[in-house]
Amino acid sequence: MLKKGFNTKALHEGHLEFSPDSVSVPIYQSVAYPYLDAKEAAAIFAAEKPGFTYGRWDNPTVMVFEKRMAALENMEAAIATSSGMAAILLLCHHMLEAGDEIVSSNRVYGGTFSLFDVGLKKMGIKVNWVKNPENFDEWEKAISKKNKFVYVESPSNPSLYIADLPALSKLAKSHKLPFIVDNTITSPALQQPVNFGADAIIHSTTKYICGNASSLGGIICGSKKLIEDGIRKGPMRYMGPSMAPMNAWLSIMGLETLSLRMERHCNNALAVAKFLEKHSLVESINYPGLASNPYHKLMKKQMTSCGSLMSFVLKGNYNDATRFIDSLKVIIHATHLGTSKTIVTHPASTTHSALGETEMKKAGISPTLIRFSVGLEDEHDLIEDIRHALENVAKKKTHPAHPSLSRLLY
Ligand SMILES: *Cc1c(COP(=O)(O)O)cnc(C)c1O
Predict the structure, then answer these.
(1) Could you say which DSSP state residue 329 is in?
(2) Domain boundaries in the chain?
(3) Ligand 1 atom at minimum distance from 88 CA
(4) Which CATH architecture has domain 6-256?
(5) Which ligand 1 atom is nearest residue 185's CA?
(6) Which residue's alpha carbon is at the smallest distance from atom 6 of ligand 1?
(7) What residue owns the CA closest to ligand 1's atom 8?
């Protein structure tokens, strides 16, 4: 049979052969499934016959999502979880035990950093952090005899570090270690880490895959041995961070338009980045899609396009940054990324505020660092919104954000 393309798989994989009586994937809002007779129940439990057993480790709607994700990442199997962090925790729990070590770039999502630094430490597992991941020697030095895998997030959130995936997978393989990639920031529409030697791929499906800020979710893609024989029969049963059927359905709906959305995300992001790059109030901009970015060449080798996450440093002080944010009228101020609406975040006053001034400096977070996750609005409206907010910064003028909004909930 002809090999199907990405979009055809994103729309059809796993569905009709399973549920031929519905064009939209049905939501099986059920935790248990009746057996025809005792013989069938025994056969399903013994994995001699396909079938569903209990909602913690299998559900028909979740299965369609898993099959589709495995197909899009060109992996044998996938297992969906209640959040991106649950996926990383489950994988760590399955692969590690007390006394083991792992190697990871320190440019990882804050939740992942805490899981490795605090959570794994509590379980007696040591993380050998690679503090300057651009420096390949540091990776080599970080690998010890007790290492169980090499972990990287590329591009990383929020620093937009891009890892040399082929080089790192070669290094991992030379030590017979699995190579694990968090592919959240690109989605499989822009980068397929299996082509560069990844053995397991993690996603927070909360971001671009679901795509409209409506459901948390995560997934691990890998070999049948890792996913089905290992995780589903093992820790998924006794830990239980399963994905809810409704969230699987929302994520399937997201997949069906993923590559179309990514195209618009990327075009809008490049337009915004080019506008910011030329603006006199912008000190520096970090977006690997720009030719001036140090990761640009590597990005083009590994990704079909750069995605829509970017950050920039505004000229001025903390108050100028908050003035900028409060002046935006179309762009929403929230802690999220990868959704259809453009989101702005100000790490110094929110996600990183607990660090204090010195620690923030050490982590490379400037008080005027601003992060955008560029959405699907009209390019013109985004640029005008940003232009106007920058004018307010220049005039030291303060505007309440979204003057039409007031708190309804609290
Ligand atoms: C958000 C995020 C996670 C965690 O996902 P949740 O769904 O929020 O638990 C992990 N990795 C990356 C790169 C992320 O951006």
Answers:
(1) S
(2) 6-256, 259-408
(3) 10
(4) 3-Layer(aba) Sandwich (3.40)
(5) 13
(6) 84
(7) 84
- What is the strand order of the sheet 332-333 is part of? 282-286, 309-314, 369-373, 343-345, 332-333
Answer whether 109 contacts ligand 1 (Cβ < 6 A): yes
pTM of the model: 0.95
Query: Does residue 345's CB lie within 6 angstroms of at least one atom of ligand 1?
Result: no
pLDDT by 10-residue block (mean), the chain, 410 residues: 89 92 96 96 93 94 98 98 98 98 94 95 97 95 97 94 97 98 98 98 98 98 97 95 98 98 98 98 98 97 97 96 96 97 94 80 85 98 98 84 59
Q: 339 C-alpha vs ligand 1 centroid, how far in Å?
A: 13
Please identify, by atom number, the ligand 1 atom nearest to the C-alpha of residue 87. Answer: 9
Q: 338 CB under 6 A from ligand 1?
A: no
The burial of 300, by beta-carbon neighbours within 10 Å (0-12 exposed, 13-18 middle, 19 or more buried), is given as middle
Spell 222-250 as b/e; 16+ CB within 10 A means b. Answer: beeebbbebbbeebbeebebbbbbebbbb
Spell out the residues 6+ positions from residue 218 whose beta carbon is closer than 8 angstroms to its own. 80, 81, 82, 83, 84, 85, 86, 87, 88, 202, 203, 204, 205, 206, 243
Please give the distance, rounded to the nearest whole angstrom, from the Cα atom of residue 84 to the centre of ligand 1: 5
Q: According to the model, what pLDDT value does residue 47 have?
A: 87
216 lines ligand 1 (CB under 6 A): yes
In CATH, what is the architecture of 259-408?
Alpha-Beta Complex (3.90)
